[in-house]
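The passage that follows is intended for readers who have already worked through the single-chain material. We present the inputs for a multi-component assembly, then the predicted structure in tokenized form, and finally a short commentary. You are encouraged to pause after the input and sketch how you expect the pieces to fit together before reading on.
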Amino acid sequence: MPILNAFYAQSGGVTSVINASACGVIETARKHPDRIGNVYAGRNGIIGALTEELIDTGAEPAEAIAALRSTPAGAFGSCRYKLKSLEENRREYERLIEVFKAHGIGYFFYNGGGDSADTCFKVSQLSQSLGYPLQAIHVPKTIDNDLPLTDCCPGFGSVAKYVAVSTLEASFDVRSMAATSTKVFVLEVMGRHAGWIAAAGGLVADHGIPVVVLFPEIEFDKARFLARVDELVKQHGYCSVVVSEGCHYPDGTFLAEQGTRDAFGHAQLGGAAPVVAQMVKEALGHKFHWAVADYLQRAARHIASATDVKQAYELGQRAVELALEGRNAVMPTIERTSDAPYAYRIGSAPLDAVANVEKPMPRDFISADGWGITDKCRRYLLPLIEGEDYPAYRNGLPVYATLRNVAVPRKLPAFELA
Amino acid sequence: MPILNAFYAQSGGVTSVINASACGVIETARKHPDRIGNVYAGRNGIIGALTEELIDTGAEPAEAIAALRSTPAGAFGSCRYKLKSLEENRREYERLIEVFKAHGIGYFFYNGGGDSADTCFKVSQLSQSLGYPLQAIHVPKTIDNDLPLTDCCPGFGSVAKYVAVSTLEASFDVRSMAATSTKVFVLEVMGRHAGWIAAAGGLVADHGIPVVVLFPEIEFDKARFLARVDELVKQHGYCSVVVSEGCHYPDGTFLAEQGTRDAFGHAQLGGAAPVVAQMVKEALGHKFHWAVADYLQRAARHIASATDVKQAYELGQRAVELALEGRNAVMPTIERTSDAPYAYRIGSAPLDAVANVEKPMPRDFISADGWGITDKCRRYLLPLIEGEDYPAYRNGLPVYATLRNVAVPRKLPAFELA
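Having made your guess, compare it with the prediction:
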């Protein structure tokens, strides 16, 4: 067998565990020097392949690569860049082949979500379409948890844990303050198309917290919502609201777009949380507080789920094994075999069945009244937030790795992105 | 010596470690059954004393009290309620004495910030002013870190740690995304009058992060700010901004008030973060993300500073010891004796020198250009965020205590709050 180099890139919005997958890919590749030469990482994702900005991960000592396991975000840089079809932009595919040829690359590992699976699938067809032998394996990653054919996606469990912990903590706070001050706390979380992340906020109901979850899947009904908040505050003295950024009215208008204007008339300055909070204030008169977690939720490696970190690593590891087994155009997956005790095995799925397919949250994960989660959802979520995987700390802050990211010398002329 | 009961109450905005002080008070009181009978907690702070809503902490097993050490927010409820002067509202003071008499209370422990120190001082004068023998000890607590005569205030160190960790993590995220997407991340933090909390965001500069801190102490200059962001993005490809909610223009207008209007013309729907982010977008065209941490920062017991937890407990403990030593109208304090290695001793300060005095952040804690912190500030902050004190977890979430909060039977007629 010839020794070939591997290309690895991170794509789309980063997560607190995508580097754990990178760690799994690189450490596993290093165990097979008879088959895999070096792992070249794309600087800023697939763009690095197109512009021949390759990072020599071989220049990093084993400890630096090991430290990726507990470092959030994308160590090599990510990008939002979707390859067009071969028919639409043949030039890009030909450039990829030039770069891969110049650097002896025979393995392609792409770490991303739905759009990236599409890119990876297109690259996996290069052998067939342009005669360049390449094995392309997709490593799943998305906090949105919306990839099909896998029980869950690395990145999601840690966001879910962050949201559940934060909602619990802030709810304890508002409960303390409710007698004379704040009675309603609103937390805005990510998830424009599906309520997977918001659902995690619903877990605090098990801890006696009155909580209203606003899902993108449930059309927002202001009157019903206000009646529910009123009911909970009358009953408990306070309540928490977890609102998905994707929550919208029946006509599709997002709550975040509702009428917020700055002095210049620009829309959408604020998020959904302040809109919801203001609504409660106007209708019910309650003092409120609101928070928007934004990047904090997906970068919060300090409170990552141990399950999530482990799976992120294992899927990176398995991606390399699949390549060594001669596979192409596949993605390793999580196949759950039991909820409690939680058990799963690593499977694989063909990329053409993954690319451009979004897995919605099942309606039966949302309670009949639309304000919370069902037992079925709870059984799904709990194993994914299980366990803590703390980074090391120095001087009060986590020790997160910043790699040297040494450039591989260029061999080709420059390439302009379209 | 007679055995007297103690009253303990939580006041003002709660923190992630105020219950650690409660734990220190109650556990220490329990060690002196020859002097202290029961500890009665005020339900919702001082209001519980006025309305005779007392909680029997004696009904809680030792494990429940111990669990307070790792539980955020106020286990007995807090309140925002400031006693007027004796001249203005003699009725309230007479009621307090009635309640204290009825329940054999001779010790008064009040756990709060500046306003609460004022209330505690007024109560400490009851012996002199109305002839009721009582020892009142203030237990400091405020995330604002603005009490005088103590090196720091319990609650602050944990918020500082949360802000520093969150800024570091989100900065890693935006650094990953900057090539094709988000270039500026803005985090809004608490601190209306002083920049102690915002300063903690400045700590990430030590980790190579380009960060701009917007302090309440430095009048906001839009042109200078935008030039600074532009410079950092050109140099590093991205930057983070930590903005205090108290950041304001030279005329005193808060950034958060700048022109944000909802469809009904209501002001101040959003916070400072979206205003700053929008400013950057308009002037420099950079894609941005913003977060508002709000309650999450002060409730985040999961990432509390071990130093802070320890000091919160010790100050509660010392408050009881001061009472047993016969002291009145004092507050235990932290006296720092060395920055590195960090060392401190517990002292005490007279309440009349604490009440209604705000400790500002020294100007020489802020860098000359106004965008960051100095070495002096760094030396001050680092020990306060040192160490992790993780709560236990079950089913993926922290095990936080909810006490039974058994009511002490009433002995007096009802009392209407003014």
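Commentary: The longest helix of chain A spans residues 156-177. The two ends of chain A are 37 Å apart (CA to CA). How closely did your sketch match?
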